[in-house]
Amino acid sequence: MARHTKAKDKLSRREGVDLFGKGAKLTRLNIPPGQHGPKGGYKKVSQFGKQLREKQKVKRIYGVLEKQFRRYVNESFKSKGNTGEALLIGLEKRLDNTVYRLGFAPTRPMARQLVGHCHILVDGKKVNIPSFQVKVGQSISLSTKSIEMPVVKKLLADKDVQLPSWLERKAVVGHVKKEPTRQDIVEPIFEQDIVEFYSR
Questions:
Q1: Are residues 86 and 123 part of one domain?
Q2: How far apart are CA 15 and CA 13, in angstroms?
Q3: What is the pTM of this model?
Q4: From residue 78, how far is each of 72, 73, 81, 90 by CA, in Å?
Q5: Residues 63 and 118 in one domain
Q6: Residues 129, 88: contact at Cβ < 8 Å?
Q7: Can you list the positions of beta strands (E) in the chain?
Q8: How high is the mean pLDDT of the chain?
Q9: What's the structural domain count of the chain?
Q10: Are residues 79 and 108 in the same domain?
Q11: Considering the chain, what percentage of its residues have pLDDT values greater than 70?
Q12: Which CATH number covers residue 104?
């Protein structure tokens, strides 16, 4: 299974956004990575550079590599309505992202790991494909073994978890109430830049 192996803090600093939900561990988000820091101030970024950075940022937020990301883009171009929103909704409905949004994991990488290690059940059946697309009406639950994990136990004890409007959760079982919308995505994403990047 392909995955990102670079230092997560360095990737977040490159994009200027906390990509992996590490929070307080990131102390230099406003400084790009590099041995000697920014030289000669910040250069003016071209339109192409801005679009490229936005594309890379979204890929890294959702933990998707280029080939798979391009498939999401191609599917969004074929869909009716807003192309950028269709792209984000396709990414949002990934099983690993849904597990993260339900509060079963503190970060998307851990949610992906839970899925890959068969700790997640969809409608009572084990699913180990992080890119699995959840559908309205489906239930997503934790396996008995995963409930005993200290990190998961701590998250389940948190009663103030903020769920997006398209999901609901009771104890260790989540339900997909409806299709996600653009308003449910809280990350600072400018999807139009990505659409323009792939429209060249």
A1: no
A2: 5
A3: 0.82
A4: 10, 9, 9, 12
A5: no
A6: no
A7: 120-122, 125-126, 139-142, 167-170, 173-176
A8: 86
A9: 2
A10: no
A11: 78
A12: 3.10.290.10
* Nearest CA among 16, 8, 42 for reference residue 188: 16
DSSP state of 174: E
CATH assignment at residue 19: 1.10.1050.10
Amino acid in the structure at residue 3 = R
Instruction: State the pLDDT at residue 160.
Output: 81
What is the amino acid identity at position 161?
V
Contacts of 36 (CB under 8 A, 6+ apart): none
Higher per-residue pLDDT: 165 or 200: 165
Residue 15, domain member (yes or no): yes
Among 59-63, 82-86, 111-115, 160-164, the least confident range: 160-164
Contacts 24+ apart (CB under 8 A), 124-131: 127/95, 129/95, 130/63, 130/94, 130/95, 130/96, 131/64, 131/68, 131/94, 131/95, 131/96
Asked if the structure places residue 3 within a domain, the reply is no
Residue ranges making up the domain that contains 48: 8-91+189-198
